Amino acid sequence: MPIGIFDSGLGGLTIYDAIDRRLPHTELIYWGDNKRAPYGTKTSEEIYQFTSRSICELWQRGCQLVVLACNTASAVTLKRLQEEFVPPNRRVLGVFVPTIESITERTWGDNSPPKEVSVQRLALFATPATVASRAFQRELSFRAIGVDVESQACAGLVDAIEDGDLKLAATLAKRHVKSLLGRMSTPDVAVLGCTHYPIVFKAFQEALGPEVRVISQPALVADSLIDYLNRHDWIHLGNKNNSFFTTADPVAVSSKAKLFLQKPLEFQTADWM
Ligand code: DGL
Fold first, then answer.
1. Could you identify the atom of ligand 1 that is nearest to the CA of residue 158?
2. Across 218-234, average pLDDT
C-alpha cells in the first residue's frame, strides 16, 4: 500500500523528495490542496476541515499511513485528528515531533522528563497559524527546559512560493529574519517550521549568518519515517509509480513543482476541487 503525503500546496514536495530518496521502491501519493493554500492565514476550523478531507482522499487511494507534510496542519489539527478522526487501522504522522526530537537529542518513544539541552536560544520561522497555535513551544516543553524561543510569523512567504516568485520569497525571508533578529540577536538554532521554506533555505542562512545552525525538516522527517516503518511492519508498502494530485490547475502546479525540485512531476486533477 502506498504512503500518502499531504500539504496545503507545494511545500510538502520538499518532504516528498527526501522520503522518495530514502524509499525509492515505495509507492508515494502526494496530495496538494493548492486551491486553498495558504492554510497559514485560515482559521483552525477551516484548517481542520480541509486537512481531514485531504486525508480521506489519501485513505480512499489506499494509503494506510499519511504524513502531514505541513507544519500548519500538524500544529493546528493533529491532536484533534488523532483523538476524533483516525481509526485504529490507519496512521497520520506530523512533522513537528521529529523536528523537536532532533533539537532535543531524543529518540522516538523517549518519554523521560524534560531536561536541559545544548540549544538555548531558538528562532522559529513559521506561518501565522503555526505561530499562533504555540504547538511548537508546547511540544518542546515536554522534552526540554531552559530553551528561549522567539517566533516569527512569516506573512506572505507561502503565497510567494506558491506563485513561483522565488525572488520575492527570498526578499521576504530576509525581511522576516531581520525582524526576528531585532528581538533575539544571537539565536543558536533557527527552525524553518514550514515545509515551503527549504525552497529559500539559502536566503534564510545568508540573512542569519554562518554561526546559526538552520534546521530544515525534510531529511529529519524522512529519517523519522523510516525509523517508524521499521517499528511498524503491519504497514504494507506498495511498489508502483508515484502519483501527484492537486485541487488546483494540474498544468500550472506541475510547472511550478519542476521549478522547485528540478525534475518533472506530473500532477493530476483531484476529484475534490
Ligand atoms: N507547508 C505548510 C507548512 O508547513 C504551508 C502552510 C500554508 O499553506 O500556509 O506550514
1. 9
2. 91
Ligand 1 pocket by Cβ (under 6 Å)? 7-9, 11, 37-40, 70-72, 127, 130, 158, 194-196
Mean predicted confidence (pLDDT) in 250-260: 92
Query: How many Å apart are CA 112 and CA 144, to the nearest integer?
Result: 10
**Nearest-angstrom CA–CA distance, 177 and 266:** 34
Average pLDDT over residues 136-156: 96
3-state helix, strand, coil in the chain (%, to 5): 45, 15, 35
- Residue 150 pairs in a beta bridge with 123
Cα(20)–Cα(11) distance, integer angstroms:
15
| Per-residue pLDDT at 259 | 82
Pocket test for ligand 1, best of 6, 13, 15, 39 (most atoms within 8 A of CB): 39
Q: Show which residues are catalytic.
A: 70, 194
Distance between Cα 113 and ligand 1 center (Å): 30
**Could you tell me the three cell numbers for 216?**
530544515
Q: Residue 270: is its pLDDT beyond 80? A: yes
3 state DSSP class of 31:
strand
Find the largest Cα–Cα distance for the chain. 50
pLDDT at site 273: 60
Strands (E), 94-223: 115-116, 121-126, 144-145, 148-153, 189-192, 213-215
Query: What is the spatial distance between Cα 123 and Cα 193, in angstroms, rounded to a whole number?
Result: 10
Whole-model pTM: value is 0.94
